[in-house]
Fold this protein.
Amino acid sequence: MTMRRQWTAEELGDTFDGDEERDQVGPRILVAFLSDLGAKGVEVRDVEREVDAEGEENIALELSVASGTLHVQFPGVPLEWLQRRADHENDWRTWRASNYSDAMYVQGYEYFDWDEAVQVAAERAASGDL
């Protein structure tokens, strides 16, 4: 039986070092996404920020998986907003008034549903469609 790596917010906090706003939400989003990918059988070996791909409002990451590199982006908002979008309609309305996008991206494709984004990322990692 293979033991999957368990990522922690403390460990991933270094990924966002020196970036106060992203320090607050980035590790929680990333731990949840990695945990959900792991539950679907995807082992993430390494995580790096794609600072050059980030705008003011988003978090861009490269996830190293067995088949290559998976590129993902998330709005820099609380995790709960991403996982339960409908419960935070007013928050999103305020966010969209001053930010470019409220979408999550997997390999450049836009998703607005957390579970769908996780599923697509898992399928792409498994198929090598990166």
Summary: The beta strands are 44-49, 58-65, 68-75, 104-106, 109-111. The radius of gyration is 14 Å.
